[in-house]
Amino acid sequence: MKMIIRPMYLALFLTLTFLSCNNEELSEELLSEVIADESTPEDVSGTNGTELNTTPCDFKLDNVQANSTVIINCVMDLGGQTINLPANVTLIYEGGDIINGTLDFSSNTTISGELMNSSLTMTGSNPQVKDPTFTFDPKRWGIVEGIVSDQIALSNTNILEKIFFSVKSLGITQFKIDTMDAYFKVDGPLGAITGPETYAINLPSDFNLSMSNNTHIRMQPNGHFRAALLCIYDAKNVTVKGGVLHGDREKHNYNSNYTDSDGSTGKTHEWVDTMRIKGGQNIVIDGVVFQDATGDGLNISGIYHYYDSRHIKSSNIIIKNNKFLRARRTNLVITSGEQIFIENNELADGGIDMTNSKGIAPSSNLNFEPVRAFSSTGTLIEYERVSNIYIKNNKQMVTDKDANPRAGGFQISHGDGPIIIENNEMINTGVSFYTANGVIIRNNNIVQGGIGAGAAENFGRTDTVYGNEIYNNTVVTEGTAITVSGNGTTIRDNYFEGVVGASFGAGATEITMGVSNTIFKDNSIKAKNRAISTINTMKNVLIENNVIDMLSGAPFVMTLYNEWSETVSSNFIIKNNIFKGTKSGTERGAPPALIGTNTITFEGNKTGEIQITGGRNMIFSNNEIEAAIGQNGVLFYADAPNTKFQSNKITTYPSQTPLKINCIKVATNIQLSSVSFENQECIEK
Fold it and tell me: Measured at the alpha carbon of residue 375, what is the angle toward residues 372 and 376, in degrees to the nearest 5?
């Protein structure tokens, strides 16, 4: 396993860039700096804009007295010698350099960071650095840019990581990189107790890495199935700002048949990431571009299993102002972590197909996927845990939805609340959750995408699936605006527009599964085919106070089915909804409702004609039913035992058609059993 060295004494060759000397000078100079061609030394300038003086020094350091301050404004060539500096010496950079030798420091010595370079060895006591900000020049540090061999790319990796930890040991907390475009080899044999961080570029604790748009850190193309470019491993108080991290997605060797040292293989190659945060605490990732990861753009996890006493969690992490582009698997994934804030990011084309690589499941922009299972005794074992996640003000999209219909999306596979998803913009994609609790999806704007609430196999499950809310969202799509399955969701005050407004119970492998303990109320729906559809089993489901507008040509306003098998009521209630449409000649113009449920209470609704296709134990009361011209008010296509119609107001329009129209009609050859009609008001117009 690679050792991460944090020396108290330096014996490293520090291949340094120019360093900023003063905080107040740094920002403007970095923005305006141009690195000159090496063939024109007269144009070379220092990191603070100071012109580099290439004139040899006319003095030496071997006779410096204690408590001295030495101005270095010339080139001091040590000629391979070791200079022993006395205590309390200060070396100040003013455009010069110290090269080709060793400085052995005594106590309380100070040096300007700009003076460190690849040919200067520093030994003895750690000196103090004049400024805690360090500006990195790849040329002075020995980084080889451009396309390189594996050997050179590995050297680049070792150089950069060693510099991070070495300058940190000198008290430098701000590490800046401007122009750099280099490849880094970060793959190698891993065993049972080693992970991708072994070969990645690791960052130390209490460290700030600041990069620019001209900083390109690229993964050397490889055939490994688990590797990471940049890692924050068991570290605290780390900030990474700016820069572009490139995965090797289009250059990766997917046919390498790589077998790791522990015998494991990974034919899908989906665990190759551009950044991993593993056991990181108090972390900020700000303004970074993550692109073309072979696996995930950014992966957040813990160290050791969640239930393990050794577990080191990832927590208090801010992910903001970043761009996540074209990860082959998922742009941003959390497998274990808490108190994570994901804000103002752009996430695009997660899991899309590209020229040399197809997307791989789950093919998403964001995904939570902690591993957990039940023991043989029914106890939940949490190998990983995701909780307290806040996702707000982000923009996610899929550029070409037709070519990549399964790509993109915010997918919450498992999680424990609060998980808040709010004020996000979603284009050609949407958001979904499955086995989770405490999920709040609110105030999002979704275009050509949808919301997926729950999973049908979680029907009736109250241990880990409950307390989810969806409200104040706007969804406009050519598909289904929202699908509702599983247990424990309240959906209110949303605007849904689609071919289908809301679909309940889809995805069940058995008809006994579907939707339970769910409220759908106070929503506005505009639909082309049907506003509400229910299939499989409904239990304790309330659909109330919704306003539905059906677009021209819609065949049905609702198709309602419930496979409830018990004799007691399922408590499936459709109540006080208003259904409107474009059928001419009627007040509301609503298309018919197709109903065949095993137990339902249909009460106080304003709807079009009702067509019964089966079911049993249904109650229709106090509804205003208005048939379209040429249609019967209520039509039984099949028997519906133990069904009651009571106190409904049924309007038909027999004068507008030559057809024989009835308030209530039973189809030919259908015999009703135990169906009762009480106090119906039939109005003919």
Answer: 150
pLDDT beyond 70 at 135: yes
In percent, how much of the chain has pLDDT > 90? 85
Q: How far apart are CA 549 and CA 501, in angstroms?
A: 10
If DSSP codes are grouped into helix, strand and coil, which group holds residue 269? coil
State the virtual CA torsion across 248, 249, 252, 253 in degrees, nearest 10. Answer: 170
Mapped onto helix, strand or coil, the DSSP state of residue 57 is coil
Could you report how far apart the first and last alpha carbons of the chain are, in Å?
85
In 3D, which of 281, 346, 350, 366 has the Cα closest to residue 318?
281
Residue that wins the pLDDT comparison between 9 and 125: 125
Name the nearest CA neighbour of 431 among 377, 380, 379, 468: 468
Per DSSP, the three-state class of 411 is strand
The per-residue DSSP string of 140-156 comes to: HHTPPPBS--HHHHHHH
Element spanning 320, H or E: strand 315-320
Of the candidates 195, 186, 129, the one whose C-alpha atom is nearest the C-alpha of residue 157 is: 186
Mark whether 523 and 639 lie in a shared domain.
yes
- Which stretch of DSSP H or E encloses residue 373? strand 372-374
Q: Taking Cα atoms as reference points, which of 367, 331, 322 lies closest to residue 349?
A: 331
For residues 646 and 115, give the distance between their C-alpha atoms in angstroms, rounded to a whole number.
Answer: 92
pLDDT at residue 16 in the model: 35
Which residue, of 121, 145, 169, is where some domain finishes?
A: 145
Q: CA 114 to CA 98: how far, in whole Å?
A: 10
**Are 356 and 212 members of one domain?**
yes
Q: How far from the centroid of its chain's Cα atoms is residue 674's Cα?
A: 54
What's the token pair of residue 283? 């972390």
Q: Which residues pair with 341 in a beta bridge?
A: 318, 390
DSSP at 140: H
Is 389 a domain residue?
A: yes
Supply the range of the domain harboring residue 477. Answer: 450-685
CA-to-CA dists, residue 9 to 99, 117, 173, 238, 307, angstroms: 20, 17, 18, 23, 38
- What is the identity of the amino acid at 294? T
At 433-489, the pLDDT tens digits run 999 999 999 999 999 999 999 999 999 999 999 999 999 999 999 999 999 999 999
Cα–Cα distance for residue pair 534/538, rounded to 1 Å: 8
Residue 193: predicted pLDDT = 73
**Residue 379 lies inside a defined structural domain of this protein:** yes
Q: Write down the number of H helices and E strands in the chain.
A: 3, 61
Overall size of the chain counted in residues: 685
d(CA 667, CA 265): 63
Both 636 and 585 in one domain: the answer is: yes
Structure tokens at 532: 């509400």
Query: What is the CATH number for 286?
Result: 2.160.20.10
The CA distance from 8 to 131, in Å, is 19
Which residues, in sequence order, are bridge partners of residue 374? Answer: 380
Eight-state DSSP code of residue 80: T
Residues 415 and 454 in one domain: no
Burial of 567 per CB tally in 10 Å (0-12, 13-18, 19+): exposed
Residue 529 φ/ψ region, left for φ over 0, alpha for ψ in the -120 to 50 degree band, beta for the rest: alpha
CB 256 within 8 A of CB 223: yes
Domain assignment present for 308? yes
Residue 7 confidence (pLDDT) above 60? no
Q: Which residues pair with 266 in a beta bridge?
A: none
Residue 503 three-state SS: strand
Q: Which stretch of 84-93, 328-337, 444-453, 471-480 has the lowest confidence by average pLDDT?
A: 84-93
- pTM score of the predicted model: 0.90
Contact 532/558 with Cβ under 8 angstroms?
yes
Phi-psi region of 192 (alpha: psi -120 to 50; beta: other; left: phi over 0): alpha
Number of folded domains in the chain? 3
